[in-house]
Design brief:
The complex is a heterodimer of chains A (530) and B (975). Helices cover 9% and strands 37% of the residues of chain A. With 530 residues, chain A is mainly beta. In chain B, strand 24 (855-861) and strand 25 (867-873) form a beta hairpin. Chain B is built from 25 helices and 34 strands. Classes of the chains: A mainly beta (530), B alpha+beta (975). Chains A and B meet through helix 1, helix 2 and strand 10 of A and strand 17, strand 18 and strand 24 of B.
């Protein structure tokens, strides 16, 4: 029996029950030393959002499902598919790694109705959180190692497990995950390393909170970037840059998507002692830095190697725990968003959509809602051979509003184009929006169809952070292009280093329909000169 | 919660029941002296009891009629310490002094710290009045009162001067609500009432109970607890056995037995009494976990209880970060009647509840708003308050708070500034303080030997002179003459009854005969009688059946709640033929220590630990009388037999696993004796008899006969013959702890890993290994833990493999121990290392060291999917494969090394073992600390050396390997 997840299956009661217990997510922890008032404030904010979400979510999921359909892979009895790594194998089959340390080969993954066949390829790995096929090996990051495995006798079970590198240290803390690997065009493999949270039974460990670059055959390991907190996703852009997602908490006060370059510092001081060790490619930073409570937008003045994010994900509004992400390289087979990025979120059991542009030598962009109502917390995404998007999920330990503890789903485009903001470009005095279909000129030219506010974040030791220095932004004009496919907004003020949160509920298409999603969150690091 | 809302009091702010001594200010010493304050310090001397001394084994034997009068008398000679004074002096009778095993009287060292001075004095004046039926004689019969009182006073001063006085009440463990009830249950179930009278209900019995004195007057909770924990330290004869009580249980029983004592040190102190509970359903990931109803605390058994000043969750007793509960109870004193506002708050994830005078007035559901205000009308006076907290799953900021406002509390005040508990501590009904008069004590010291105390009692640190008390030798006693029976003024009076007297007469009628060794059958009965094994166990001799609990005591032999196994589940097993049932080492262990004893968990009564001379030989005499009857040689041990045996025991065979545990795995139904212990304990002949006809061993057993009339239900297994199948089962049992899990066995929690058809390789955090542990479980039920941090095989063990809970549950990351038992720990540090010279210490390894034994390269699997670990040390590539080796007694392990050298190969060593004592056996075999054997085979000749390095002995193998050479070494471990 096919188990299509419909909005009917998302019963309100379940949702309410799960929402109330949902904490933050994989690679992110509830506040530790949190002031009670702020905790309450956070809770109120979250609760208000959730109330609204609970009320409107079924209808929104219903609307989204007209364009993108979720197909749930039926699992065998007793299978715990806490999918933490997804790989489309070159032989056409799918490979799934789980948080429990199992690896499955999935055959027949595309049949309708789905009748997948699972073969257990490996067992007992230490939290594998990524899979990559290379030179006949399956490379994977596990807690203490980058490893590779292969099946030498053709029985679809791995029988050699080699350590590529185990150079980084473990303190014995549960939070010390390793994510990846992903391969850059120069052949190197990138792995991101979580920091510990709380007790470190085996003592302070080197290289926690770093991105490592590894030569796949020799295992030679360099540490290219510091200051990561909980880097749950790492991916290579089509043009060869490395990006990663990081989860909000202390010293990373808003979740983000960032580019990583050699020499970067990303804000979290935990791993700073390793900067001076051999193998580090990051310049020394004075011990006094970063100061507790600096504007991130100004931090480069003190720490030149500090890397501003490409996209901030405002807490609760755009998920709470970004994880795996994937560029749409389907050439339109997955809908109209080729070249954009889909980002999973564990807590919200959702997929977000990100459009990036390079402005002033910095990749920055905007995030939109894309598809809610997943069966569990999204951890990993990968495109299948038919250009549908596989989603691997688990809610264990951190919780998710999805109804299931874990699962594997496939998101399929139904061929219909939703009415959406397609791209959002920064301009010297505002933004240019493009749409997937022509807009109704009257509604789109009316500044009252839009509402905007902007805010930014501090870098501090507190857990998470409020939307700070927040102001309303005036929409001073809205000009619709002749073809009706784009709108030029001028705004006042425009502030570099701020999230510009745009609500455009008033904009209609020529049939008078609303946008499928009416919010956009643009992280304006640089204002273009023209 | 930020910091503490108010300063901690100076005294320890929490003491758990396990906390031991409680340091408080000494109370002022009060002087007390028997001569001057008799009203305060002495127990009124009642009329001397005429009750005969109670010797329980003598009574059991007499009732059963399994021994003649002489044999009964012999027990009395020992239990009444007759030979402590009346030594057989003739050379031809010297053996009598050996043959009669004198019970010995209590060791009086520290007596003053165990008993009140007043009770001591009263007891000395007339033991039989204080403890009717006691075996201690009255030393002052017919002595004029003044003289007697003077002697008693001197002895009391002497004993207390030598041994100190009772700890004052403040040092006693505090009395908790739950303690008395726990103590009542324990006293009446673990075995105390096999000898002593029940403290409640009908105590009529066909054999008399061993008397207890007025404990409330005699001793303190602390002293009684210490005694219950280790009775043999005071009663060297070992007749009062240890019931393996833990300190908490001993305290519970002591408090119960002393429950009538005064709560002398009662004071009101701020704070609460707390109880800590673990969730009986620790199923964090189970369906409905978060929606289960709140716990009903009264239906749960607290893991720990104690006192705390603050309403805090941060207690050392909290062993779980996951599901757990706390309950705090106390009193709130209200000065003015009126309406009071309470606010209950706890972290969002938790549920909490506030009860006033037993009524729930505020309830915070889990995952709901934070603060629950409630108004309560309170009269003036004390009101009971109870605050409960429970959490499922985990939270990083647990807290519980309650405030009160109203009356004199003008603003919300934390309840822990208001709540009080009554700090009740029990104190003996007689004063505990005593002023020793040195002169009187010195007189008492002389008296101690003069009246004969020193003949029976030890008193540490005192040079005694037994010669100053001279008694006639055994040979010169004229037992038939009534006047000889201690009737003179001042002679020790025993109150023997006529049958006791007759028995002693019979026993001593022929001293030449008494000087001969007992025949073995009599010896068994004598020993069983001496320790009164008959109080619990039945045993049939040629002379008849004896023992087993008598009717009055049978109700106190109980099963664990909720079980039904009939009498088999509550009455201790028969001792008939026990020497042919248990292997000698197991039998000795059961009698004297717990190592090989199978605690029948369904049975509440415990088999205690005895001590003393006779118990040391009892296992040998039982073996000599019983073992020859029908013991068999072990059947041949083959792999096919093991497989067949495993099938027969599992759910495709006889389904033994319905009732029997196997290793760490519990039976499907009622959990009874663990089959993994059978081989180590039971003789082959007995197992054979049991399997063929269980009812021949226990008529009432619930174990079915599997081959009724010789018919075979599973003709396809083990030749389809009864003998073949029994032999197969025996072969399988002989693997002991490494019995592979039978088909259909419940292997515990769903996260417990159990290898069945092929090895399981599992990377995890592991205690005493590292965060880079790789555990391997083999179907042969022997398992290893490899440390990929420093390259060493760290542990090997048998039985259950590993619980993945720590790696799979919640956020995981917990370090766990092996899930099995019989763990062999390998030496710390890497397996292989280069040493500059033979005196260089082995590379030390701290928790932060990495790669000291090489760099980890991974593992590959052989055709049986057994892993071969690969690592590289300098220029040497090492492969190490653990290989299970099955054999009777449990599977062992061979470590197979293959070393391939590059250019560098000098001075390489393999550390085989480390210990306090390494003994070379035959060539190529060593024993480490008596429990680990190591044998060696290698492709080229190599000879290990034993060296002492940094205080330990090490068995080091210089690995002779040349450049570009490949060698192999097999290290066989058995333990």
């Amino acid at each position: 029996m096919v188990n299509f997840l419909s909005c009917n299956s998302l019963r309100l009661g379940i949702l309410l029950a799960t929402i109330t217990l949902a904490g933050p997510v994989l690679a992110q922890d509830p506040p530790d030393q949190f002031d009670r008032d702020e905790d309450n404030q956070r809770e109120e904010q979250e609760r208000a959002f959730l109330e609204e979400m609970v009320l409107s979510l079924p209808a929104q999921i219903e609307a989204e499902s007209r364009y993108y359909e979720l197909i749930t892979m039926p699992l065998l009895d007793g299978m715990i598919m806490e999918a933490s790594g997804l790989l489309q194998l070159s032989d056409g089959r799918l490979m799934v790694a789980t948080r429990r340390g199992e690896v499955f080969i999935v055959e027949n993954a595309y049949s309708i109705p789905p009748k997948p066949v699972f073969k257990r390829y490996a067992f007992g790995l230490a939290q594998p959180l990524g899979l990559l096929e290379l030179d006949g090996w399956i490379y994977f990051a596990q807690r203490g190692e980058l490893s590779r495995m292969r099946d030498t006798n053709g029985d679809d079970r791995a029988d050699v497990f080699e350590t590529v590198t185990d150079d980084w240290e473990l303190s014995g803390n549960y939070h010390e995950y390793a994510f990846g690997p992903r391969q850059t065009p120069d052949g190197k493999l990138w792995v991101t390393l979580n920091i510990p949270f709380d007790a470190e039974p085996y003592g302070a460990a080197d290289w926690r909170g770093w991105a490592a670059r590894i030569e796949p055959n020799t295992g030679a390991t360099e540490y290219v970037a510091a200051g990561l907190r909980s880097p749950a996703g790492v991916e290579i852009s089509p043009w060869g840059d490395v990006f990663y997602t990081d989860n909000q908490g202390e010293w990373n006060n808003a979740s983000k998507l960032s580019k990583i370059e050699v020499g970067d510092f990303h804000g979290h001081p935990h791993g700073m002692p390793s900067i001076d060790l051999p193998g580090s490619l990051v310049d020394s930073i004075p011990d006094s830095l970063p100061r507790d409570g600096t504007w991130m937008k100004d931090l480069q003045e003190e720490i030149p190697s500090y890397k501003m994010p490409s996209v901030w994900f405002p807490y609760v509004k755009m998920g709470q725990s970004p994880s795996g992400f994937k560029w749409d390289t389907t050439g339109g087979q997955f809908g109209p968003f080729h070249g954009q990025v889909f980002v999973g979120d564990q807590h919200h059991a959702m997929i977000m959509r990100v459009f990036l542009e390079e402005v002033g030598n910095h990749w920055q962009g905007v995030v939109f809602n894309f598809r809610r109502g997943l069966q569990s917390g999204a951890l990993r995404l990968t495109f299948g051979t038919d250009d549908s998007l596989f989603i691997g999920m688990s809610a264990r330990g951190w919780g998710s509003i999805g109804p299931d503890a874990f699962g594997l789903q496939r998101l399929v485009w139904k061929g219909l184009t939703p009415f959406e903001v397609h791209e959002m470009h920064a301009k010297p005095n505002g933004f240019e929006l493009t749409f997937t279909e022509p807009v109704d000129r009257q509604s789109a030219e009316d500044p009252a169809s839009y509402r905007m506010e902007s805010y930014t974040y501090e870098l501090s030791s507190r857990y998470g952070g409020p939307e700070d220095d927040k102001i309303e932004v005036n929409i001073t004009s809205a000009t619709v292009a002749d073809d009706g496919l784009s709108v030029r907004l001028t705004i006042d003020p425009i502030r570099a280093g701020y999230v510009h949160e745009l609500h455009l509920a008033g904009v209609r298409n020529v049939e008078g329909a609303n946008l499928l999603h009416t919010e956009a969150y643009y992280t304006l690091v640089n204002i273009p000169e023209r | 919660m930020k910091g503490q809302p108010y300063p901690k009091p100076a005294r320890p702010w929490v003491h758990t029941r396990l906390g031991g001594a409680i340091a408080l200010l000494l109370s002022t010493l009060v002087t007390g002296c028997i001569g001057t304050e008799t009203d305060n310090t002495s127990v009124p001397i009642t009329r001397t009891s005429n009750k005969a001394p109670i010797v329980p084994g003598y009574e059991s034997m007499r009732v059963a009629n399994v021994a003649d009068a002489a044999a009964l008398g012999e027990v009395l000679l020992g239990e009444l310490n007759c030979l402590s004074c009346h030594i057989a002096t003739g050379d031809e009778h010297a053996e009598i002094n050996e043959r009669i095993t004198t019970k010995t009287a209590p060791d009086l060292s520290g007596i003053g710290q165990r008993v009140t001075p007043g009770w001591l004095a009263a007891y000395l004046a007339d033991p039989q009045a204080q403890k009717p039926g006691v075996t201690m004689p009255n030393l002052f019969q017919a002595v004029p009162a003044a003289e007697r009182e003077s002697a008693v006073e001197q002895l009391t001063h002497f004993l207390i001067s030598e041994s100190g006085t009772l700890e004052s009440a403040e040092y006693q463990p505090p009395l908790y609500r739950a303690t008395v009830e726990q103590g009542r249950k324990l006293f009446h179930s673990v075995g105390c009432v096999a000898c002593h009278a029940p403290e409640e209900g009908d105590s009529e019995s066909t054999t008399p109970f061993v008397p207890l004195p007025n404990l409330a007057a005699k001793t303190s909770v602390f002293a009684l607890t210490q005694f219950l924990l280790n009775p043999e330290t005071i009663l060297h004869g070992g007749r009062m056995p240890s019931l393996y009580l833990n300190e908490e249980e001993a305290t519970d029983i002591a408090v119960y037995l002393l429950r009538e004592q005064e709560s002398a040190a009662a004071e009101r102190i701020g704070g609460f009494e707390f109880e800590y509970f673990l969730d009986p359903m620790e199923d964090e990931d189970a369906d409905g976990f978060f929606t289960r109803p709140p716990p009903i605390f009264d239906e749960l058994v607290a893991e720990n209880i104690g006192r705390i000043d603050m309403l805090s969750l941060d207690l050392p007793v909290r062993t779980s970060r996951g599901n757990h509960m706390f309950r705090y109870s106390g009193l709130i004193p209200i000065e003015t009647a009126g309406t009071y506002t309470f606010v209950l708050a706890s972290d969002r994830r938790s549920g909490s509840e506030l009860l006033i005078d037993g009524e729930a007035v505020a309830t915070k559901q889990r995952d709901t708003g934070r603060e629950i205000p409630v108004e309560v009308d309170l009269e003036a006076g004390d009101h009971a308050i109870e605050v409960a907290y429970y959490i499922r799953g985990d939270t990083r900021q647990p807290y519980i708070e309650t405030t009160i406002e109203g009356g004199k509390f003008a603003e919300p005040t934390p309840i822990d500034r208001v709540a009080i508990v009554e700090d009740v501590r029990l104190s003996p009904t007689l004063p505990t303080v005593f002023q020793v008069d040195p002169a009187t004590a010195e007189q008492g010291g002389q008296l101690f030997t003069k009246v004969g105390c020193a003949s029976c009692h030890e008193l540490q640190g005192i040079v005694l002179n037994p010669a100053s008390y001279s008694a006639p030798s055994l040979e010169t006693l004229k037992f038939e003459v009534a006047s000889e029976w201690h009737t003179a003024v001042g002679a020790p009076r025993y109150n023997l009854d006529e049958s006791q007297r007759r028995a002693i007469i019979e026993a001593t009628r022929d001293l030449d005969q008494l000087a001969q060794p007992r025949d073995i059958a009599t010896d068994v009965i004598h020993a069983l009688g001496t320790y009164d094994c008959y109080a619990c166990h039945q045993r049939t001799e040629t002379s008849g059946a004896a023992g087993g609990p008598n009717a009055a005591r049978i109700p106190y032999f109980t099963m664990a709640p909720g079980l039904d196994l009939g009498d088999e589940g509550r009455i201790p097993p028969t001792l008939t033929g026990v020497g042919g049932k248990l292997k000698p080492e197991a039998l000795h262990s059961v009698l004297t220590e717990d190592r090989m004893h199978v605690r029948r968990n369904y049975m509440q009564t415990r088999m205690p630990r005895f001590s003393g001379k006779l118990i040391e030989t009892l296992s040998a005499t039982l073996e000599a009388t019983d073992a020859a009857k029908g013991d068999l040689d072990e059947p041949p041990f083959t792999e096919q037999a093991i497989k067949d045996g495993r099938t027969l025991i599992g759910d495709q065979g006889m389904r033994c696993i319905t009732c029997h545990d196997v290793g760490v795995n519990a039976a499907q139904g009622v959990s009874t004796i663990n089959m993994a212990t059978f081989y180590g304990r039971l003789r082959a002949g007995w197992i054979n008899r049991l399997l063929r006809d269980p009812h021949s061993i226990n008529r009432d057993t619930r174990m079915p006969s599997f081959w009724t009339g010789g018919s075979v239900i599973h003709p396809d297994i083990a030749d389809g013959t009864v003998a073949g199948q029994i032999n197969a089962i025996y072969s399988y049992l002989s693997l002991g702890s490494s019995m592979p899990v039978p088909e259909g066995m419940n292997v515990g929690d769903s996260m417990v890993l159990a290898p069945k058809d092929e090895p399981i390789i599992f990377r995890t955090f592991m205690t005493d290994v590292s965060p880079r542990a790789i555990v391997v479980g083999y179907p042969e039920s022997v398992h290893v833990g490899f440390d990929a941090n420093v390259m060493r095989l760290a542990k090997a063990w048998r039985g259950g493999f590993y619980d993945a809970q720590g790696t799979w549950s919640g956020r995981a990351g917990r370090f766990l121990e092996p899930y099995g038992n019989e763990v062999a720990n390998m030496p710390p540090g890497p397996a292989l290392a280069f040493l500059d010279n033979i005196d260089e210490p082995w590379p030390p390894v701290t928790m932060t060291d990495r790669n000291t034994g090489g760099r980890f390269m991974g593992y590959r699997l052989d055709d049986d999917r057994r892993p071969i670990f690969m690592y590289q040390l300098k220029d040497i590539v090492i492969e190490e494969q653990p290989i299970p080796v099955i054999r009777p007694g449990g599977a062992n392990l061979t470590r197979r090394f293959s070393l391939e050298a590059g250019q560098v190969s000098d001075d390489l060593y393999l550390l085989l073992a480390e210990g306090d004592e390494i003994i070379e056996n035959t060539k190529g075999s060593w024993t480490i600390d008596g429990h680990l054997d190591i044998a060696l085979r290698s492709s080229t000749p190599m000879t290990p050396i034993v060296r002492t390095s940094q205080g330990v002995q090490q068995l080091l193998l210089p690995v002779g390997i040349a450049s570009n050479q490949t060698i192999s070494i097999d290290v066989e471990l058995s333990w």
